[in-house]
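REQUEST FORM: STRUCTURE PREDICTION
Request ID: SP-0412
Submitted by: Lab K.M.
Chain count: 1
Length (residues): 212
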Amino acid sequence: MKYMRMPAGMWALFAAPFQRELKDTLGCSEAEAKRTAKAAKRRYRKLIDGLPDFEKGDRFQMNIVSCAMLCSFVLEMPQRPSVDALTDYYRNAMMTGPMRLFCRLSGKRKFTAKDVAGMRQTAAFRAADRNPYSWNMDFLPYPNGSGYEARFTKCGICTLMRELGLFEYVPAMCRLDYTMSEAGGVSDFVREYTLASGGPYCDCGYRKKESR
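STATUS: Completed
RESULT:
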C-alpha cells in the first residue's frame, strides 16, 4: 500500500491527537510524546509500505490504516500500557471533532436502502479471500427491520496485530465500535463474540434505537 492519499490523510488528521493523548491519557512527558510521535511516523510509513494495495470496492482500507497508526505508536511507546489504558488512549485520540461529525453524518445514512445495499455488496465481496489484511463478513438483517448484524469471520486487524506481537491489544481497537455507534446517535451497538477472544466470529450488531 503506497504512502499516499488515505494513509497520508489519516496521519495528517490524527497524528496530533495521538501525540497529545500520550501525555493526557498515558502520562508521558512532553519530550517522550514528541520522541514517540517522531519514531511512530517512520514506523507507520514502513508498515503502510508493507501492506498490499486494497482492491477497488474494498471498504475496509481505513480500518487497516487506523490499525497501522495505532500499532506504530504502541511499538514506539516508552513502555507498553495495559489494554484498558490503550483502550482509553485510542478512543480519546480518535474521537476528535471531525470524527464525531463523521459519525453523526454516517448515522443519518444508517439503515437506509443505500446503506443496506452497501452492506450486502461488502458481504458478497469477501475481500479477505484475496487479502489477509482485509475482512470477510456476512450480513444478517434483524427481524421486522429493527437493524442488522455484520458478522466477521476474518479480520485484518487480528492479522496485522498478531504479526506485530500486539494481538493482546486488539480489544482496544474493537471497543471503538461502541463509541462510534453512540456518536452516530441512531443505533445501539451489541456484541457477543470476538475473534480476538477466541470466539467463532466478531458480531457487530446495530439495533435501531426506536426498536427497543
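NOTES: The CA atoms of residues 23 and 170 lie 22 Å apart.
Reviewed by: T.R.
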